[in-house]
């Protein structure tokens, strides 16, 4: 069982790589962004509360996301957890450490995916996802199949996120550099940080992560 954190700015490729690890290694993806979007579409009070914050590109409160992660960790995972977009602040990182300790789980690696800002703008503004299965596409680098049907599940529902525009991305990047990038030093000091070139092709990034995970 392997537990890892995928750490990187918006559009670094965390979700793309997490989906691959779920398919190939039977790991469980814990994406706080997806959990918050699910809460929005199911119309819960919490979903309504966070919708505007997310569209603007700001971070939602630590308390909310820690609560979401705690619930999912309690369910357990045979293949291990991929933390995708969590933790994003030092208090979230401390809370995760406590939760893992309580559940007698260990963190095997923190993979920092390094991508420059210019590439992030192009990735985020060109992104779409499948409404059926969540497969991630890109207008240029991974376009939808010509017949308009998702190559993974056949759905024709194309989704675009409310925060995938240049304005929100500016705020998301500022939040990342101010509140999330200090985690790089935090995990470096703990000896768990591994850095990879997130600008490489999707296949090459997969290979770098596989190497870190030991195969
Ligand atoms: P969240 O959903 O976590 O978004 P994010 O961190 O901004 O990351 P993204 O999902 O945008 O990008 P990604 O790294 O997964 O990239 P992807 O693989 O899709 O968070 C959204 C919001 O929720 C936050 O702003 C905040 O409000 C809130 N939130 C979430 N978690 C929180 C927390 N812990 N605390 C507080 N608030 C929280 O790839 C992007 C595109 O690039 C795709 O089109 C893909 O096809 C393409 N691509 C991927 N890899 C490559 C590659 N190697 N080469 C070329 N193209 C590639």
Can you offer a commentary on this structure?
The structure is a single chain. The protein is of the alpha/beta class and 215 residues long. The protein contains 9 helices and 8 strands. The chain has helices spanning 14-25, 32-41, 45-56, 62-75, 90-102, 117-125, 166-180, 182-190, 202-213, and strands at residues 4-7, 28-31, 81-84, 109-114, 127-130, 136-138, 158-159, 193-197. Helix 2 packs across helix 3 and helix 4 packs parallel to helix 5 (90-102). The mean pLDDT is 95. The structure holds BIS(adenosine)-5'-pentaphosphate. Residues 8, 10-16, 31-33, 36, 53-54, 57-60, 65, 85-86, 88, 92, 123-124, 126-127, 136-138, 141-142, 163, 172, 201-202, 205 line the site of BIS(adenosine)-5'-pentaphosphate.
